[in-house]
Amino acid sequence: MDKLRRVLSGQEENEELGLTAQVLDASTLSYSTRVKWFVICFAGGILCSILGSALLFLPGGVKLFAVFYTLGNLAALASTCFLMGPLKQLKRMFEPTRLIATIVMLLCLVLTLCAVFWWHKRGLAIIFCILQFLAMTWYSISYIPFARDAVMKCFTTCLS
Fold first, then answer.
1. Using the 8-state DSSP alphabet, how is residue 119 labeled?
2. Quick count: other Cβ atoms within 10 Å of Cβ 40?
3. Rounded distance between C-alpha atoms, residue 4 and residue 146, angstroms
4. Membrane-crossing residues (predicted)?
5. Beta-carbon count within 10 A of 71 CB
6. What angle do CA 82, 16, 98 make, to 5 degrees?
7. 74-93 pLDDT, tens per residue?
8. Cα angle for residues 129, 79, 55 (degrees, 5° grid)
9. 6: pLDDT strictly greater than 70
10. End-to-end distance of the chain based on CA atoms, in angstroms?
11. How crowded is residue 53: how many other Cβ atoms within 10 Å of its Cβ?
């Protein structure tokens, strides 16, 4: 609620400038270069995920799907390192508000690859890919103020 008050009163703009200054200090790359590499890395991640989904229907495509989908999620996650810098990204990932989402997401990334290459369980790999998607979504919305509350409210409303 305080954040909403600050935004409405115009105080948020000053904080935004401070955040921009902190982001600019996070890397030796120029801001435009970091934004370009963010877009390239994020688009590459999406492309890998789509390619993996297309390969799912080929014979033996579950392995390729799991690998490309996991690489896509890792690339999308790594793309934010260009905006904030890797150390700041790691600090924010393991903040208490997104700690569980981060752990579940990273665990699902590893378990997907384990299910395909070591355990040879294709169905389990697909389940872990679905869990990857859900964990990545929950992790991503943790950066949007009040988004998790809204999702939980919608979810509980739909269930009742």
1. S
2. 13
3. 10
4. 37-58, 64-87, 99-119, 125-146
5. 18
6. 60
7. 999 999 888 888 899 899 99
8. 35
9. no
10. 26
11. 15
Is the Cβ–Cβ distance between 3 and 51 less than 8 Å? no
The residue with tokens 């949007």 is 144
Tell me the average pLDDT of the chain.
84
Measured CA to CA, the distance from residue 2 to residue 38 in angstroms comes to 31
Backbone angles phi, psi at 60, to 5 degrees: 70, 15
Residue 154 structure tokens: 């919608």
Distance CA 57, CA 143 (A): 34
pTM assigned to the model: 0.73
Distance CA 24, CA 35 (A): 11
Q: Which two tokens stand for residue 42?
A: 């994020």
Supply 70's token pair.
């996991």
Q: What is the pLDDT of residues 7-56, one digit of tens each?
A: 445 554 444 445 554 544 456 888 889 999 999 999 999 999 999 989 88
Query: Closest by alpha carbon to 138, among 91, 82, 97?
Result: 97
| C-alpha 79 chain-centroid distance | 9
